[in-house]
Amino acid sequence: MRVLIVTDTYPPDINGVARTLHTLGAGLVRRGHVVEVVTTVESQEGLQRHVMHSLPLPGYPGLRFGFASTRQMLELFDAFRPDVLYVATETLMGISAIRAAGRRGIPVVSGFHTNFQNYLEDYHLPGLETVAQGVLRAIHNHTARTLTPSADTAAMLERWGIQNVGVLGRGVDTEMFDPVRRDAALRLSWGADESTPVAIYVGRVAAEKNLELVVRAFDVFKEVQPKARMVIVGSGPRLESLKEERPDFHYAGARTGEDLAAHYASGDVFLFPSITETFGNVVLEAMSSGLGVVAYDYAAPRLLIRSGENGWLAPFDDEGAFLAQVREAAARWQDEGLRLAARQSAFDLGWERVIEQFEHELAAVMHEMEEVK
């Protein structure tokens, strides 16, 4: 197959969507397919890319929206001659790609990777959630198939009236994210020896991640473990204000690769209070790294965590219950049996099965279009 991935975010961007798309594309190449990417960021690394004009999201310069005309997309299609498109983001660039594909008779699979409709209030556009749902429904129903990472999100899309929704899960590199990467010197740089519990958060430092609850959760953690340290790994628009609010936290900035893996493995308990995830790749990475995760019962945590056995779950958006689970996690931060169980839970979730399913989904819509013709 000749596959064209259309996405506003792609490495060197540091986020779960970018990493996922790179992993899927590279996996298809290993399986003998030709894959190119239409995106917004220049880089000489990775897959062949076509870079389009873009503008930053207001209030969040780390995220960009791409712009491309239908004509630009048609010219690109005529040069690359894709058999199938995967449109991963619902911006003007993605819409243009879908329109152009319709004119050329190229099948399109779309991805729902991010709950943008939930971000509108956080980014000063309140009251538009219903409008956003209608727009998203129209976009996705112009594609042959919509893939999303969790059953929870798939059910939500079906309630909106989006048709032909499928679940394409996520994987984790268990060799990269491994407890053996625990680094005593790194912990000491955080002010923690092996007798000091470390709570850690990895992800965007942004309003939609419910960071206020991270702060409250650590205060509860520290009531149980007065020596505890809090480490924030990531960057984003809330970073500077959080530093001012909590100078006692350690801020590691954005990390990638083995460096990121060492940061995970050097923590003890992972705090994940987000309520806007379509999946939550960081939960898989934390569990693979041998951390007990405290999270809400939806998306990846619902799939992976057995509360009290390999992590801790709270009913969705129940802050009191979440904080109660944080107390339990603080009391059991050295529970090696729980941490081993978390690691074991990640082993069945390698990327190859996800890449194989992705390949099958793309091939299926190609076959359906050939039958129609």
TrEMBL record:
The record's keywords, sorted A to Z, are: Glycosyltransferase, Transferase
EC numbers:
2.4.-.-
| Source taxon at top rank | Bacteria
The chain positions of domain Glycosyltransferase subfamily 4-like N-terminal read 14-175
- SUPFAM superfamilies (alphabetical): UDP-Glycosyltransferase/glycogen phosphorylase
**What InterPro entries does the record tag this protein with?**
Glyco_trans_4-like_N, Glycosyltransferase_grp1
Q: Which GO terms describe its molecular function?
A: glycosyltransferase activity
Q: Which PANTHER family match?
A: SULFOQUINOVOSYL TRANSFERASE SQD2
Name of the protein this chain belongs to: Glycosyltransferase family 4 protein
Task: Give the originating organism.
Answer: Prosthecobacter fluviatilis
Q: Upper taxonomic classification of the species?
A: Bacteria, Pseudomonadati, Verrucomicrobiota, Verrucomicrobiia, Verrucomicrobiales
